[in-house]
Amino acid sequence: MSTLNITNRHISDELKSAIMHNTGGQKVIERILKAYGFSSRQAFCNHLGVSQSTMANRYARNTFPSDWVIICSMETGASIKWLSSGEGMMFEDGHDEKAVMLQHQKITNGVLNSQNDIICDKSEIPEGLNSPFIVTADKSRFLVDAYEGEITDGLWLVQIDSLVSIREIYRFPGGRVRVENGKASFECSVSDVKVLGKVVTKTDFVEL
Q1: CA 167/CA 181 separation, integer angstroms
Q2: How far apart, in whole angstroms, are the C-alpha atoms of residue 189 and residue 169?
Q3: Which of 13, 41, 78, 206 would you call most buried, defined as having the most Cβ atoms within 10 angstroms of its Cβ?
């Protein structure tokens, strides 16, 4: 009696065993980060809205992240086969491997609102960033990187009195800063300014 072969793609016994026994997750997570273009696991946690402890537990236990594989494939177009095994091409549909998906937020009346993610060219994103994302405000688009250090002179994404904005800030001695805002510029204590990110690049929209 013959057996009908209903499969048209080969999966190695090793990969099949890893999936069924929920193992081999560390390399899979690394490929997921590569598909998104994230430089850190924290960036992926921020994107998916999961805690650092969830990521740490899965990575430490080498748990196969089947749910993350499916989400990553649906969002980036990356091949499930490549994400799961590293075999074949990252993007079977010809998707540009030089692209990276970044979170996109828009400032409206001092409030950050999440927008659809934006696909950017990796060559336009400087190396060494922690967790870059895109912010649009007025007629400009900003590449912003998450930041936890001391505020210095430069352009920043900040929150002051619960209102979010992009502001140029200058650091003065004694823990004081000057916040540039045209005629409404002012000085305050550095503790009055909550830093949400450091602006890396700015692009102004041109009206035709």
Answers
A1: 7
A2: 12
A3: 78
Among candidate residues 78, 96, 99, 86, the one with its CA nearest the CA of residue 28: 86
Q: What is the 3-state secondary structure (H, E, C) of 90-141?
A: CCCCCCCCCEEEEEEEEEECCEEEEEEEEEEEHHHCCCCCCCEEEEEECCEE
Same domain, 58 and 143: no
| Nearest by Cα to 33 from 10, 12, 15, 58 | 58
Task: Tell me the pLDDT tens digit for each residue of 23-42.
Answer: 888 999 999 988 887 878 88
> Is residue 100 within 8 Å of 117, Cβ to Cβ?
no
Rounded Cα gap, residues 130 and 12, in angstroms:
36
Q: According to DSSP H, which parts of the chain are helical?
A: 13-20, 25-36, 41-48, 52-61, 66-76, 80-85
pLDDT tens across 44-72, in order?
A: 888 888 899 999 999 999 999 999 999 99
CA end-to-end span of the chain: 72
What is the CATH classification number for the domain harbouring 32?
Answer: 1.10.260.40
- CA R_g for the chain: 22
Task: Find the domain containing 141 and state its range.
Answer: 99-204
